[in-house]
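pls design
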């Protein structure tokens, strides 16, 4: 049976071809990143956050980024405007929250909070 063709490593800027998502060189660094990052609950995204998020989205149902562009899109994500990076006070500061649709949130996160810096 024929094998799937190799594809580029998913690590940003790596040209290596691999049969997996990451080449052997970057496989370990990805595992270390995920291990050190901790679970969502450990980072504060627990039951209390889910309840606060639900309430905030009811109060702010539209994506603020899409609204700036003249579009009306339902928000599905409560985003921290300034990344809290573990700061509990900043995490719970509602003045630091904004409602975004998933597409706008993913775009913002990739641009400003890039996983690999």
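designed seq:
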């Amino acid at each position: 049976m024929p094998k799937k063709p190799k594809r580029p490593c998913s690590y940003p800027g790596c040209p290596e071809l691999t049969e997996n998502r990451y080449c052997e060189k970057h496989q370990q660094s990805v595992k270390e990143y995920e291990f050190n990052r901790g679970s969502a609950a450990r980072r504060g995204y627990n039951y209390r956050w889910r309840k606060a998020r639900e309430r905030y989205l009811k109060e702010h149902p539209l994506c603020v980024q899409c609204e700036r562009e003249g579009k009306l899109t339902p928000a599905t994500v409560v985003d921290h405007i300034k990344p809290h990076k573990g700061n509990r006070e900043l995490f719970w500061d509602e003045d630091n929250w904004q409602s975004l649709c998933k597409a706008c949130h993913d775009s913002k996160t990739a641009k400003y909070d890039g996983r690999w810096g």
